[in-house]
Amino acid sequence: MEPAVHYVMTADGVRIAYTVTGNGPPILFCSELVSSHVQLEWSQPVMGPLLSEFARYNTLIRFDPRGSGLSDRVLGQTLDEFVLDIEAVVGRTGFREFALVAVQLGTPAAIAFAARHAEQVSRFAIGDGFARMADLLNTPQSRTLTAAAQNDWVMATEAIGYVVFGSGREESRDWGAYIRSCIGPEAFAPTYLDFVATWDASDLAPMIGVPTLIVKHQGVQVVTMEMVKDLATLIPNAQFAIVQGTWADNPEVFARRMNAFVNSGVGDAPPAPELSSSGLTAILFADIVDSTALTERLGDASFRAKARDLDAALRAVIRDHSGTPIEGKLLGDGVLAVFTSARQAIEASLACARAADDAGLALHLGLHAGDVIREENNVYGGSVNIASRISGLSAAGEVLVSDIVRGLARTSAGVRFEDRGEQALKGVAEPLRVWAVVEREA
User: Fold this and answer.
1) Partners of 285 in the beta sheet?
2) Among the listed residues 434, 383, 391, 420, the one whose alpha carbon sits nearest the alpha carbon of residue 289
3) CA distance linking residue 350 with residue 119, whole number of Å
4) Predicted TM-score of the model (pTM)
5) Inter-residue contact 9 to 21 (CB < 8 Å)
6) Which of 67, 92, 238, 342 could form a disulfide with 212 if both were Cys (CB 3.0 to 4.6 A apart)?
C-alpha cells in the first residue's frame, strides 16, 4: 500500500515531498535523483521490496530530492541545495537522531549532511556510493546514456534499466517508464550536467565519525569498484562489503544487510534478520607446491606426515591472525581459511609462507574477497573458487591477491603490492587483475 505523501518547504523555497512509514528506530533513506518517486516506487519490483524490508523493523523516512518525483521540478545546481532538502525533511519529521542510508546518486548529499550534522546521524550505510559526481559521469555507461538522452529521451530511459539490472531482466522492462515519471529530460541537459559534475563530497567524507558500512554490487558497472573503494578509503574506519549481482538479484537481502548494520546496538529495537548464509569474507587458499612430485620423492607416508604437521602449523597461524580455518579442507587438497579483515588475511598469508619455509616446504597462496555461502563447517561460492585460482597462479612462497583485496588493505597492511596484470582464470568470465604482496624492508 502506498504511504501518505506530505510536503515541506526548504529554506530556499522549494517544496519537497516525503513519506514516513513503519515503526521502530528511524532511518532516513536518500535515493537516486533519477529514480526517486515516493508514491510510485512502492509498486516497483526492486524498490518496493527494498523499502518494505526497511520499513519492517524501522520508521522509514523517504523523500524526493528537488527536481524529481513529486517534489518541485526545480533542478538543484549545487550539493548544498540538496542538503537543504534533507534538512527540511529532518526538521519536519522531528527525529533528533536517526540512521542514514544512501544509494548511488544520493550519496554525495548524504555525505555532506552527515559531515555537517554529526550529532543527528547514528549510523551510515551506503549502497554503490561515491563521493565525486564527475567520476560517475566519466564512466562509459554514463557518457553513452547522457549522449542518448539529449537525442532521444524515451530510448535513453529505456536503456537505463539494462544498465542497472542487466539485459534480459524482467525488472528492466518497466523501468524506463518509471524513470520518466521521476525526472524530465532537462536533468540530462549539457548545461545542467556541467553543474552536476562539480558535486564533490570528498573533502567532507573524512569528517564522518559514525560507524559506516559501504556495500558494492559487483554487477553494477556504472558505479565502478574504484569509485566505491575510494569512498571507503576516505571515510575513517568504514566497513566495506561486496555482494554478487545487481540490485535486482535480491533487494530484500540487501536491505536486511543494511538494516542489521544500522540497527546494531540500538536500544530495544527489533533486530533485522541475520544473514546466516552469506557475507563479505577475505578468503585464503594455500596449496603445497609440487605435492605430486614430493609424494613420489619422499614416499606417500613421509609426505603425508610432513603435510599433516604443516597443516596443524598453518591452522594455528590462521587462528593467531583472527582467521577461521575450514575444517573440511586438508593440506594436499588445499588449506582454506576465511577472515573478516583483508589486512589480517594478508598478514596470515605471509606468516603461512614463513611456516612452510621452516618446514622445508613451499606454498602457493592466493587471496580474494567476496560473498561466501556458509554451510556447517564449510564455505562455498564463486569467491572461494577465485581464491583457489589465484593461488594456482602464485610462485612458490608468493602471496597473490585480487584487486579487491589490495583495495581493502592498501593503506593498512604495511606492505606494498606489485602489479601482476590481468590474468585469465579458469571458469571466470572476465580477466582479473592480481597483485603480489611484498613485505616492506625493516
Assistant:
1) 336, 366
2) 391
3) 42
4) 0.65
5) no
6) 238
Closest CA to 215 of 175, 169, 247: 247
Q: What is the pLDDT along the chain (442 residues), one digit of tens a residue?
A: 678 999 999 999 999 999 999 999 999 999 888 889 999 999 988 889 899 989 988 999 999 999 999 999 999 989 999 999 999 999 999 999 999 999 999 999 999 999 999 999 999 999 999 999 999 999 888 888 888 888 899 988 888 877 777 666 677 778 889 999 999 999 988 889 998 999 999 999 999 999 999 988 888 888 998 899 899 889 987 888 877 777 777 787 788 888 888 887 555 444 443 333 344 678 999 988 888 788 778 887 887 788 888 888 999 999 999 888 886 554 455 689 999 888 899 999 999 999 999 988 899 999 998 877 666 567 777 778 888 889 989 999 999 999 888 887 766 667 889 999 998 887 676 788 899 999 876 5
For 128, left (φ over 0), alpha (ψ -120 to 50), or beta?
left
- Our CA angle for 229, 232, 235, nearest 5°, is 150
As a whole number of angstroms, the distance between CA 416 and CA 421 comes to 15
d(CA 260, CA 388): 30
Classify the C-alpha dihedral 389-395-396-397 as positive or negative: negative
In this structure, are residues 26 and 59 in contact, taking their beta carbons and an 8 Å threshold?
A: yes
What does the block give as the cell for 414? 604495511
How many Å apart are CA 300 and CA 174, to the nearest integer?
A: 62
